[in-house]
Design a protein that fits this description.
Layout lengths: L1 H21 L3 H25 L4 H26 L14
Helix pairs in contact: 1-2, 2-3
Length: 94
């Protein structure tokens, strides 16, 4: 049963990659990268269960945190074109 789930996750990952390369807008591509990361987390968890390795769950949780932080960083870069502090305009300038 879990082997079927692993195969389904692999198919979903490949479909996400297709959306990543084809996606008409930048936000479609960002969503595809985030979905790919989520499917990767699920795949690592299923593979850990199939191989009876519970330490894979720790690895998948760490990957989920990195995926979340990376998605936020990418979207911030697309919006402000900078990853650091966004410079504020002085109140007198319009």
């Amino acid at each position: 049963m879990f082997a079927i789930a692993a195969i389904a996750l692999l198919i979903a990952m490949f479909l996400g990659l297709a959306r990543l390369f084809k996606g008409p807008t930048l936000y479609d591509r960002a969503l595809a990268v985030n979905a790919f990361g989520t499917f990767t987390v699920l795949f690592i968890g299923v593979m850990g269960f199939l191989n009876q390795r519970p330490d894979f769950l720790d690895i998948s949780l760490l990957y989920a945190l990195i995926n979340f932080a990376g998605t936020i960083a990418i979207l911030k870069f697309f919006r402000y074109r900078a990853l650091g502090d966004v410079p504020q305009k002085p109140e007198g300038d319009q």
